[in-house]
Write a structure and sequence with these properties.
single chain, about 290 residues, alpha/beta, Purple Acid Phosphatase, chain A, domain 2, six-stranded mixed β-sheet, 7 helices, 12 strands
């Protein structure tokens, strides 16, 4: 069973909470994921010192790691840098590549840079060339491999999220393309609150499909949680078996000084469309690992 630890919106800088960062590291050690996904906003203001701290934190997490930049990882007030070298520090400290592919026998994970330094400050954009990049990455994927897309900005916001201005440009087109490419999960952050659901909660697909599982993480280590996760921190554990995907949502509890699971969400693998009666066995095994 493939295990993925999903963290996001670390916001190294004034908003970062060191004690909770240490709790994330302890959770990673206990959960022993096969892959760590960090979906952007490593820094608060894209400063070199903040990037250095973020790099030191990532170095303490297990690998391999899948990373993408967030809008806070691009200089905001340093206009010259924003125009001419917006990703210089990100490339130096986090990853030289902005769009990446991690390929395993059991998974193909495509990470897409949805920031747009010259056009948007907060919102994201997806380019058609990136959708073609996805198609190429998934073209030779093993039939049984799960197909996952990671981006900082949300393609499908939570159903109770009412700010339509924040919806990413070309989000619906991208979701239609992802459905055609048989993507099973989209993982992201940006909203500073978790949401685990299905793309069909928000958008009706043009093609007959079961939709795509949406896995949003809240801010894992900063004081910038929003909505129902105001002043809270969260992360997700995604476990993928042959028939079932189990997603466990963790939140930080000050009385424990640790992250603890608050909900579990079970989905059938895309090829099955519905849960088989025998799914209880792998789900139980997943629960044992997550607890």
């Amino acid at each position: 069973m493939l295990s993925i630890l999903h963290i996001s919106d670390l916001h190294f800088g004034p908003a970062y909470l060191p004690a909770i960062g240490e709790a994330v590291l302890r959770a990673a050690e206990e959960l022993r994921p096969d892959i760590v996904v960090a979906s952007g906003d490593f820094t608060q203001r894209a400063k070199q010192s903040q990037y250095a701290d973020a790099r030191a934190f990532l170095d303490r997490l297990p690998g391999p790691q899948v990373v993408v930049p967030g809008n806070h990882d691009v200089p905001l007030y340093r206009v010259f840098e924003r125009i001419f070298s917006p990703y210089a520090l990100y490339r130096r400290y986090i990853s030289e590549e902005l769009d990446t592919v991690l390929t395993r026998d059991d998974a193909v994970i495509v990470a897409l840079n949805t920031t747009s330094p010259l056009r948007t400050i907060v919102n994201g954009r997806i380019r058609r060339s990136q959708l073609d990049f996805c198609a190429k990455a998934f073209a030779d994927a093993p039939e049984s491999a799960v197909r996952i897309v990671v981006a900082h900005h949300h393609f499908a916001p939570a159903p109770d999220y009412d700010n339509e201005q924040d919806v990413m440009w070309r989000a619906r087109e991208a979701l239609d393309r992802f459905n055609e490419l048989e993507v099973e999960l989209i993982m992201g952050g940006h909203l500073h609150r978790a949401y685990i659901g299905n793309s069909l909660d928000i958008y009706r697909s043009k093609t007959p499909a079961s939709g795509i599982i949406i896995v949003q993480s809240g801010t894992s280590t900063s004081r910038r949680g929003r909505a129902r996760e105001h002043a809270k921190n969260s992360l997700n554990l995604v476990q993928i078996g042959p028939d079932v995907t189990l997603i466990t949502h963790f939140m930080y509890f000050s009385e424990l000084g640790e992250f603890a699971p608050t909900s579990r969400h079970t989905f059938p693998r895309r090829r099955l469309h519905f849960l088989q009666p025998a799914e209880s066995a792998p789900a139980q095994a997943s629960d044992d690992k997550a607890s």
